[in-house]
Amino acid sequence: MTFPIYAFHCLLLFAQNTTGTPGAAAPEGSLFRVDRINALVIMVIFSAAVLLYTRWAKQGMKLFIRKIAGLDAVEEAVGRATEMGRPVLFVPGLQELDEIQTIAGISILGRVARITAQYETPLVVPVRYPLVLAASQEVVEQAYREVGREDAYNKDTVQYVAGEQMAFAATVNGMMMRDRPAANIFMGAFFAESLLLAETGNAAGSIQIAGTAQPEQLPFFIAACDYTLMGEELYAASAYLSHEPLLLGGLKGQDMMKVLIVLSIIIGVVLVAFGAGSTYLSWFQVR
Amino acid sequence: MKRTVPLILAFISGIVMVVAFFFREGSYAESLSQEFLIWSSIIGGFSLLLGCASIVRVQWKNVSLRKSGWGYSIVTLVAVVVSGLPGVFPVSWSPLFGRGTGSIYDWVFVYISTPMSGTMFGILAFYIASAAYRAFRARTAEATLLLVTASLVMLWRIPMGEAFLGSISSGLVDFINTYIMLGINLAVQRGIIIGAALGAASMSLRILLGIERTYMGRG
Predict the structure, then answer these.
(1) In the beta sheet, which residues pair with residue A159?
(2) Could you tell me if A98 and A126 are in contact, meaning their C-beta atoms sit under 8 angstroms apart?
(3) pLDDT-derived band at A280, boundaries 50, 70, 90
(4) Is 50 exceeded by the pLDDT of residue A26?
(5) Are the Cβ atoms of A130 and B192 closer than 8 angstroms?
(6) Torsions phi, psi of A158, nearest 5?
(7) Which of A49, A106, B93, B142 is 20 to 30 A from A1 in CA distance terms?
């Protein structure tokens, strides 16, 4: 656990002591952004909480994680698709691979692919970006290999369909109406197309599970899907599905941080109510 | 090797981006992060070939096997060639090439792609109506509460509705804005955003330190 902190410290010193690239005009004063020190402090506290709980989890500490109905329903949905002899459609969002929601979606895809490989259920994964295509293909292939079903893996399981948002939605809607997948799983970042996808899936009679951290799209998914993972539940999915203590430790560290945020809000409310909160509020402003 | 190298790359890239956030323009860390972003764009550009190969292979297979909806696959293949290739050829060969005004690419974009996207977006209105019908059916106390609240907010959002609400009670419009939108709605949204931000930060940290490997297909 100490290595990452040491490495981070070394990198920090290294960057602070270098004068910059040759020829680049460095502004006067320190290159270190003192005005962002509050963000650094919060980051260190958060990292410490996550790493501490991860360490405790590694040492065998029992961690309670509440049930997430949407994730429990994943296996049920794939089972239904197997019984009906119809495919499972998985969409890992409409953002690039540098979006953390996409990575969370791909993590869940790995679990879903493992179940479809075991049940020999067809899986279809349309993607919007080529980098997501490459990453998803790797994850799905690995899942088939892990359950000893390499022969059943089809390279076109994950397919690039369109780079434009509405063209992507139209293509996936077409797939839903033609192939009638028994289960649609939407996990990642979605925008205006969320309702187009979810309503079409609903009309096609598929069981639908969605998960996103876009608060504006959650009402649409809640209205049109059977199960919806809200915000942090999407990021918790890989830990929840794998039951790995190391990953569960990260979730507990996150909960600890939530407690600290709630306390900070209460302190802020009290201070502001008594007209003494200006300095306190400035600590939380990141420039 | 296949397992370790991606982890090391993820760790170094992530740390550089985090450190750069705390340094001003002109620092080595900031320059390095910019360099990483350029590499990322270059890799993204080359990966387009992967996407192109995937779309052609899948659509071609649909056509050759006469799968359901294979006619659409022909349209897709024609669209890939017509909109893609002329955009790649240099404009010095013909004013129809390239991506400038008057090129084939520009024509396809302005007269086909944009109106079709607009049409898809327009369809959303009908989808909202059907989803709202299902969500607002007053079968339970919660659904009834949702129906009443949503009706008030929707009325408030249109000028005629705002005038109507104002005629009932002058304080009703302020009540909706203060208590429903800036009160209950904003509080819930912020709760979700804080949770999601912490989840994203925690997952980033797990990826950075190599604890989370499920995105590489290894659990």
Answers:
(1) A126
(2) no
(3) very high
(4) no
(5) no
(6) -100, 125
(7) A106
- Does B108 contact A at CB distance below 8 Å? no
Q: Please measure the distance between the N-terminal and C-terminal CA atoms of chain A and give it in whole angstroms.
A: 30
pTM: 0.88
Instruction: Note whether A82 and A207 are within 8 A (CB).
Output: no
Nearest Cα to Cα of residue B152 among B184, B189, B187: B184
Closest to A198 in 3D by CA, of B19, A212, B181, A272: A212
Q: Are A180 and A204 in contact (CB under 8 A)?
A: yes
Q: Which amino acid is at A34?
A: V
Residues of A in contact with B215 (CB under 8 A): 103, 106-107, 110, 135, 139, 238
Asked if the Cβ–Cβ distance from B192 to A231 is below 8 Å, we say yes
- Distance of alpha carbon B157 from its chain centroid, rounded? 25
Buried b (16+ CB within 10 A) or exposed e, A106-127: bbbbbbbbbbbbbbebbbbbbb
Handedness of CA A163, A169, A170, A175 (dihedral sign): positive
Q: What is the mean pLDDT of residues A19-34?
A: 59
Q: Judged by CB atoms within 8 Å, which residues 111-170 of B form the interface with A?
A: 113, 116-117, 120-121, 123-124, 127-128, 130-132, 134-135
pLDDT in tens, A156-204: 999 999 999 999 999 999 999 999 999 999 999 999 999 999 999 999 9
Confidence (pLDDT) at A229: 96
Searching chain B, which residue's CA lies closest to the CA of residue A223? B135
Q: What is the mean pLDDT of chain B?
A: 90
- Rounded Cα distance, A74 and A112, in Å: 7
Q: Helices (H) and strands (E) in chain A — how many of each?
A: 11, 6
ipTM: 0.89
Q: For residues A201 and A176, is the Cβ–Cβ distance under 8 A?
A: yes
